[in-house]
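Protocol step 4 of 6: structure prediction from sequence.
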Amino acid sequence: MELAFTLLLAAAVFHTRVHRREWAVVVGITAGLALLLYSLQPSGGNHGGAPTLRWVAGIVVVLLIVGVVFRAGADASHDRAPPTSGSPPERVSG
């Protein structure tokens, strides 16, 4: 529900309208979250907790995923050619 309220607040602050596409995204995310919570059926949990090996494995997997995403973003930013100098390009009139 916070996403819907944030969308309405942003529309009011920036003086824009919320279009059908944005509402469809809000409905899709909300439905996906509801489906996830229903599928997982969270409960009180286990007092024993997860073994240390599972924590370490989970942390390693998450760090690998973050590294891959970070590397992909860095490679994508290097694909764009930066300007050669700080001055804007000269205009050629003709």
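Step 5 (inspection) to follow. DSSP finds three helices and no strands in the chain.
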